[in-house]
Amino acid sequence: MANFQKLIIPSDRVERLQYIKRMFAQATGSFLGDAWRGGRQEALRRLNTTDIQAYSRNRNFLNGDVSKLSPYLRHGCLTLHETAENVLQRFGAQSQKFVQELAWRDYWRRVWFEQGDAIFSDLEDAKVALGDKPLPDFIRQGITGLPCMDGFIRDLTLEGYVHNHARMWFAAYVVHWLKVDWREAADWFEHYLLDGDKASNHLSWQWIASVNSSKPYYFNKENLARYTGEKYCATCKINCPFDASYEAINDKLFVVNGASPAKTYRVDMPTKDALSTHQAVAIYVHDEMLSGAHPLLRRPMARIFVFDDFLHGNWPLKRLQFMADCLNELQDVEIWVGNTREILKERGVGQIITQDTPNRQLKALLEPFNPVYQPEVKFAESTISEKRLKRFSRYWEKVGAELFGEELMANDKK
Ligand SMILES: Cc1cc2nc3c(=O)[nH]c(=O)nc-3n(C[C@H](O)[C@H](O)[C@H](O)COP(=O)(O)OP(=O)(O)OC[C@H]3O[C@@H](n4cnc5c(N)ncnc54)[C@H](O)[C@@H]3O)c2cc1C
């Protein structure tokens, strides 16, 4: 029996979400609900209603005016370039903070393109002694006993979205207080995110751990209480492990002097396969290009998307539903579930054209189909040398100047 199936995604949303639940009976986690709706239309609505000026002032607060655009940018509903253009045109220099955050995504992505699967291993020696404990069950179950951390785990596992500052506190707690191996924690964390992205996620965990930064990131109670608006601290009764000065925390966390040498981790790759002997040429729509405005979708040839076991097999239900929302807006795309290679062969495909990606696992999967990669739309034109890619500040010096002009950037430094 064939190990794949074509999906007919219902246009009615309620039916669509139910359909995905039936088709992916093994997928875990809760329903997507109304708070998130995949697709370009919703992405544009969010972009046009984000208060960019308020964002510059309050984005670090848990209740700040963040855009919640990350799942849309991750799946290509919007390009980073058009997002930046939109706010630059409307707010000029006042959009700088927001554009700088978009730039972080571009930066991590460029590092992924440059470094490939090395991003899954320590990029540098750690600047402090790191631990290598497995991720404890009390983290997986969200029962740490710390109301703040349990709250962040609930955001993660129930909503699939966590505020950036909370991601930083949580990762620091896991890596520095609990001494957990960052890689295991990063894999677990990414699994639940609607915006789960190998570059932004794994490189951020590395940044916190200090294997891709010049020092470890950690925080104290005062910082968490301020930016959460006392949401958790006001009623918290436990003996807080974060209630100390930065100096005292530093001495406690990094009591073992010295640094940890860089570690290498394994990456799962698909098996090798011979070149396809078929003739047809098709557009392969992958999960970073789910936009009806994508130029490749204007080409008059078969367009094929696959919910692939290797790529998406363990994704939670709500993320599959989010992608189904996105796919519902695309015209004339065949949607399949199963093994990409078997499906492309079944469709007689010998060559695919698709958007370029830093994802080497996806590329290895597509190798037998003689792929042609079209470059993705650039966030900024600047070419960034490997040396500049070492740190965001060096990258931003160049990209920021391209987007906002040398003068504004120089004023910023004063
Ligand atoms: C441990 C950790 C794990 C992370 N994992 C992911 C991930 O898997 N996927 C992901 O998209 N982001 C990840 N981030 C980055 C960041 O937390 C999210 O992009 C951001 O919180 C998304 O919320 P928003 O769209 O409301 O952001 P906004 O503040 O509104 O920012 C607008 C956009 O800029 C980009 N952006 C903002 N901050 C960052 C950042 N620090 N790094 C990269 N891009 C950024 C995002 O695309 C975001 O949508 C992670 C950060 C940390 C500390």
State the gist of this model.
This protein is of the alpha/beta class. 45% of the residues lie in helices and 7% in strands.
Molecular structure report:
37% of the residues are buried. The chain has helices at residues 13-23, 40-49, 52-58, 70-74, 80-91, 96-115, 137-140, 147-159, 164-177, 182-192, 198-209, 221-227, 246-253, 309-312, 317-328, 340-346, 360-366, 392-404, 406-413; strands spanning 5-7, 280-285, 303-308, 334-338, 349-355, 372-374. It has 3 domains: 5-11 and 269-374, 3-Layer(aba) Sandwich (Rossmann fold), CATH 3.40.50.620; 40-119 and 384-413, Serine Threonine Protein Phosphatase 5, Tetratricopeptide repeat; 122-253, DNA Cyclobutane Dipyrimidine Photolyase, subunit A, domain 3, CATH 1.10.579. Helix content is 45%, strand content 7%. The radius of gyration is 22 Å and the shape is globular. Helix 10 packs antiparallel against helix 11. Strand 5, helix 17 and strand 6 (372-374) form a beta-alpha-beta unit. It has 19 helices and 6 strands. Strands 1-4-3-2-5-6 form a 6-stranded mixed beta sheet. The chain has 414 residues and is an alpha/beta fold. Flavin-adenine dinucleotide binds next to helix 4, helix 6, helix 9 and helix 11.
